[in-house]
Write a structure and sequence with these properties.
- The protein has 15 helices and 21 strands.
- It is 32% helix and 23% strand.
- The chain has helices at residues 17-26, 36-43, 70-73, 84-92, 182-193, 202-214, 229-242, 260-271, 281-288, 294-316, 327-332, 365-374, 379-382, 403-422, 475-486; strands at residues 7-10, 31-34, 50-53, 79-82, 96-99, 105-113, 126-133, 135-139, 144-150, 157-162, 167-170, 221-224, 246-252, 274-279, 320-322, 355-357, 396-397, 431-445, 448-461, 469-470, 493-496.
- Strands 2-1-3-4-11-10-9-6-7 form a nine-stranded mixed sheet, with helices on both faces.
- It is of the alpha/beta class.
- It folds into three domains: 7-193, Class I glutamine amidotransferase (GATase) domain (Rossmann fold, 3-Layer(aba) Sandwich); 202-382, 3-Layer(aba) Sandwich (Rossmann fold), CATH 3.40.50.620; 402-497, GMP Synthetase, Chain A, domain 3, CATH 3.30.300.
- Bound molecules: xanthosine-5'-monophosphate.
- Xanthosine-5'-monophosphate binds at residues 329, 342, 344-345, 386, 388-390, 431, 465, 501, 505-507.
Length: 509
């Protein structure tokens, strides 16, 4: 039941990439969306049946043109290239790709299908599609069949297939609803051509996890519960089936935001899980005293988290520990092969004789949100902004963490959130990170010298948290934030961080 996805989507930098995953999911197929470097790592341990290369904001001739990893390209798995993805494949085979004004298309376009190619099975021979490209494939190498041409554009190439390499390409975007038959084309590829069977049915996934874990009456479990979408969804899946055999444990290490414990309790109630909150602020502060290195902080957090959870397990007489760990946590922690980006506290823990269950680990955030919605969780759960396990400990950087500094960053976070909540014209924010940069700078307040830290305000918009754009606040909102925060005697400066991801990550540490 809880198998890995069969479809790998390599995100080459298009805003539409997640629409490919959504369209497939609506047809019943799971997929994993990864950047080229993450796809490279993922391929070391997985064998997908279908690969899709997304479009991109780049052109194939750009110096920094994104490259799909060679272990994906050369795996012998059928590949569908969309827009840039098709151009990249055709160029790779020796075809000519150029920025030719005659062939540019932005918006609705028409195609004539001249060869079904498997991709256009059950599709009308003339189609309205949606396209957005400056570059076009002008010629293809021998061995490549042309499957579709443009209606209005002197028959230029719009879809191709290379039989030997099992590569398909479309110049338009089948993932966009304005492409008639687009969902059928994607399904033709993953099912008809690649042989994937439907594997996304939220109700089945919920039932599968319940029967795997909850049906055994000997299983008693403690669930690490943060009130976030992952652990709350995990609780909502298991609690109805396990009842008293399940206990949620939330660790309050002094790293939570204002009002967060109340929200944790509300979310536990919504999921129907019994909750215990462990107050461990002193212990965390003592262990973190003098520590400034990001990975060291993460390791200390992980060590204490493990010990406290083990104690809770022993007290409850649990046989298992359940965590809401996701695929991305494992990937970033290097647990699936490849590089460590950062150590997540919920990956690679040594539970000794205890059973560890991570039923959500094949899934991605957007899928877990869909499961939460399926389970009728409140909006505050379904759309909850991610907040890293070590929380405010990662949002206090440049010097050691102290109770006062945590208090200051918690206060600043609350102030900024309130300003944004009331403000108009603030673009959509996927995650807001308010951090305290503990490097002191000089200022003047009243008549006196001030020497203190800065608050850094960073808001990002993203669909998958693999890449993100910085959100720019309107000038008035920036002024209000700056004025409000610097009224606190402990804050000398306010910095707005508008660096996208990459190169910067969402969090500072
Ligand atoms: P970055 O900073 O890499 O973060 O852009 C991507 C997303 O992951 C969250 N994040 C974490 N989540 N434990 C978590 O559960 C962690 O240790 C952790 N570190 C980062 C981050 O907030 C963002 O949503």
């Amino acid at each position: 039941m809880l198998t890995e996805p069969n479809v790998l989507i390599v995100d080459l930098g298009s805003q539409l990439t997640l629409l490919i995953a959504r369209s497939l999911r609506e047809s019943g197929y799971r997929s994993v969306v990864l950047s080229p470097s993450k796809a490279d790592m993922w391929m070391e341990r997985h064998q997908p049946k279908a690969v899709i290369l997304s479009g991109s904001g780049h052109g194939v001739h750009d110096v920094d043109a994104p490259q799909p990893p060679s272990n994906v390209i050369d795996a012998g798995i059928p590949i569908l290239g969309i827009c840039y993805g098709m151009q990249w494949l055709m160029k790779h085979l020796g075809g000519e790709v150029a920025n030719d004004h005659e062939h540019v298309e932005y918006g609705p376009a028409g195609i004539n299908i001249v060869d079904d190619g498997g991709l256009f099975s059950l599709i009308w021979k003339t189609q309205r599609v949606w396209a957005s490209h400056g570059d076009s494939v002008l010629t293809v190498q021998e061995g490549t069949d042309i499957l579709a041409t443009a209606i209005d554009n002197d028959g230029s190439i719009r879809a191709v297939r290379h039989n030997e390499r099992k590569w398909w390409g479309v110049q338009f975007h089948p993932e966009v609803p304005h492409t008639d038959g687009g969902a059928v084309m994607l399904e033709n590829f993953v099912h008809g051509i690649c042989g994937c069977e439907p594997d996304w049915e939220p109700a089945d996934i919920v039932a599968g996890i319940r029967s795997e874990i909850a049906s055994d009456p000997e299983v008693r479990a403690v669930l690490g519960f943060s009130g976030g979408v992952d652990s709350t969804t995990m609780a909502a899946i298991l609690a109805p089936a396990m009842g008293d055999r399940l206990l949620g444990v939330c660790i309050d290490g002094g790293h939570l935001r204002e009002g967060e414990l109340e929200e944790v309790r509300r979310h536990a109630d919504a999921a129907g899980i019994k909750l215990e909150i462990i107050d461990a602020e002193e212990e965390f502060l003592e262990a973190l005293s003098g520590v400034t290195d990001a990975e060291e902080k993460r390791h200390i957090f992980k060590r204490i988290y493990l010990r406290l959870l083990k104690e809770a397990v022993a007290k409850f007489g649990a046989t298992h520990v359940v965590q809401g760990t996701l695929a991305t946590d494992e990937i970033e922690s290097g647990a699936t092969g490849g590089h460590l980006i950062k150590s997540h506290h919920n990956v690679g823990l040594d539970w000794e004789h205890l059973g560890e269950l991570k039923p959500l680990s094949p899934f991605f955030k957007y899928e877990v949100r869909a499961l939460a919605a399926e389970l009728a969780m409140p909006e505050s759960v379904v759309h909850r902004e991610p907040f890293p396990g070590p929380g405010l400990f990662l949002r206090c950087f440049g010097d050691e963490i102290t109770a006062d500094r945590l208090e200051l960053v918690r206060w600043a976070d609350h102030q900024v959130r309130e300003i944004i909540r009331k403000a108009r014209d603030v673009p959509e924010i996927s995650q807001l990170v308010i951090a305290l940069c503990c490097v002191h700078t000089t200022g003047v307040k009243g008549d006196g010298r001030a020497y203190g830290p800065a608050v850094v305000v960073r808001a990002v918009h993203t669909t998958d948290f693999m890449t993100a754009e910085a959100v720019e606040f309107p000038r008035e909102v920036r002024r209000l934030i700056t004025g409000t925060l610097t009224r606190n005697h402990g804050v000398v400066r306010v910095w707005f961080d508008e660096v996208p991801k990459p190169p910067a990550t969402t969090e500072f540490e």
